[in-house]
From TrEMBL:
CDD domains: LSMD1. InterPro entries: LSM_dom_sf (IPR010920), LSMD1_Sm (IPR034110), Sm_dom_euk/arc (IPR001163), snRNP_SmB/NAA38-like (IPR050914). Pfam families: LSM. This is Sm domain-containing protein. Residues 23-85 form the Sm domain.
Amino acid sequence: MSSLDAASHRSSSGSSQNVEKVRKMLFRRMLVGVNDGRYFLGLFHCVDKQGNILLQDAVEYRIAPSQRRRDSSPAEQRGLGLILIPAACRSSCHVDCSVEESLSLLSLE
């Protein structure tokens, strides 16, 4: 096997491990925050090469500007269904799983 073949084998092996990690997150509850302060909670459906996330049965949560000043204000919510969240808009992302699984998922390269 040439060094080029070995390098491509290592990179495909690494990417297949990452694909397996993402597969383990499928259909788990995911909370995604976006730059404008809204949050979306839904079932993780997929992610594309650009990092866009697709959530199924999503609910949007937002706090109205007038309510942000109060500490105990409830967030407004509305059901959205299937949504795509662009990678450029995403500020945070949390998957509902155990601590051990979270630590193993953090090792994505």
